[in-house]
Amino acid sequence: MHLILVIAALYSLLPLVWLVTSATKSLGDFSTTGAFEFGEWNLWANVKTLFTQENGIFWHWLLNSVLYAGGGAVLGSLICAACGYAIAKTSFPGRRLLFALTLTGVLVPTTVLALPMYLLASELRIVDTFWAVFIPLLTNPFGVYLARVYADASVPDEVLEAARVDGAGQLRTFFTVALPMMRPGVVTVLLFQFIGIWNNFFLPLVLLTDPKLFPVSLGLFQWSTRQNQFPQYTPLVITGSLLAVLPLVVAFLVLNRQWRKGLAAGSVK
C-alpha cells in the first residue's frame, strides 16, 4: 500500500517538477537539456517577458481568474451552505424530490450544459461579458450535497430549537448559529469551488471572445496554439502555467486543516 501511495504521489508531483525546471529555461535550453534538468537560469527573464507580452495581457487574465474564482467560491459556497442547510434542517413540500434532483445534477457533465448556457446568455444579451461566466459558476450540485450532509451531521436540532425559542428568525438562525457550526464543511465547498472555477476552461471558451475577459486557463491555451508558428511562446506558456498553479497550492496549504475536517465528516456520514 505504501508503494502504491508513493507511486501515486510521484505521478502527481512530476508534472509540477517539470514545470519548475522548464520555467527556468530559455527557448534554446528546451532542445539541449532533459525534461527534468535545469538549464541556464532564466526564470526571472521569463516572468518579466510573461507580464509584458501583448501589453501585459497576462495581468488581465490573472485578475479575471481571481474575480471569477474568488467571488464565485465565496458566493457559491454560501449559496450551497444555505441550500444544504435548508434541505437538511427545514421541512417544506418537495424536499426529498429537490434533493434527488440535486444529486442528479452531480451526474450531468458541465460540457453538456455549455450550449444551453450560451443560448440563455444570448437571450439575456450578456455573451462576451464578465457575468456570462460568473453567474453560472455560483451553482454547484455537489457543494449542495456536501453542505447538506455536513449540516445534518454538525447542527443539532436542539440548538436550532433553542434559537427559535429565543426569537431568532430563519436567516438569523442560519447566519449566527448554523453557519459557524458548518464552517469546516463550508470551507471544503469553498475550496472545491475555487479549484473548479480557477481551472474552468470550456465555459469561458464558449461564452467569451474578448481576450481581456479570459481567465488564465483560456488565455494560456490561446498562447499554446501559437507555439508551432511562434516558438517564443513556449517559455511563456510554461512559466504562466507555473504561476497559475501557485494560487491553488497556497489555497490548499492555508485551508488544509479545515477542508480535511469537512471531507472526514462527509465520509463518515
From TrEMBL:
The chain crosses the membrane at residues 66-88, 97-118, 130-147, 186-208, 233-255. The keyword Repeat does not apply. SUPFAM superfamilies: MetI-like. The lineage of its organism: Bacteria, Bacillati, Actinomycetota, Actinomycetes, Pseudonocardiales. It comes from Lentzea indica. It is found in: Cell membrane. This is Carbohydrate ABC transporter permease. It is a multi-pass membrane protein. Keywords: Cell membrane, Membrane, Transmembrane, Transmembrane helix, Transport. It holds the Pfam family BPD_transp_1. Its main location: membrane. InterPro entries: MetI-like, MetI-like_sf. Belongs to the binding-protein-dependent transport system permease family. Residues 62-254 form the ABC transmembrane type-1 domain.
